[in-house]
Amino acid sequence: MVWEKFVEPTIFFSGDALQVASVPDDWGAGARGNRPFGKTGYATYGLRILLPATHPELALDLGSLHYGARIYINGKLTRQNGVPGVSAEDETPAPWTRPGVIRIPASEGTPDSVDLVVQLSNHIHANGGFRAAMIMGEANYIVRALTIDTMARLMLIGASLLLALYHFILFLNRRQELAFLSFSAFLMTIAVYGTCSLGLMSIVVPGAAASFMLHTEYLSLVLSSFCSLICLWHLYPQTRWKPLWRIFAGYCIACILFILVTPSIVFTGFLPVFKLGIVCGLAISIVSLVVGIHRKLEGAKLFLISVGIAAGGVCYGILIHSLEGYSPSGIIHLCVSAMILGQAAVLGRRVTFAISTSEHLRVRLQEANEGLEDIVASRTRALERAVEDSRSALLDARQANRAKSEFLAMMSHEIRTPMNGILGVADLLHHTDLNGRQIELLGIVRQSGDDLLTILNDILDISKVEAGELVLEAHEFDLSSLLERCITLWRPRAADKGLSLVRQIIVPDGLILRGDQHRLLQVVSNLVSNSIKFTESGEVRIDGKISKIHNGAIRLVLKVVDTGIGIPVDVRDTIFQPFQQADVSTTRKYGGTGLGLSICKHLIDLMGGTIVILDNEVDGSGTVFEVVMTMAVAEAAREGKSRVSM
Question: What is the mean pLDDT of residues 174-182?
Answer without folding.
Answer: 76
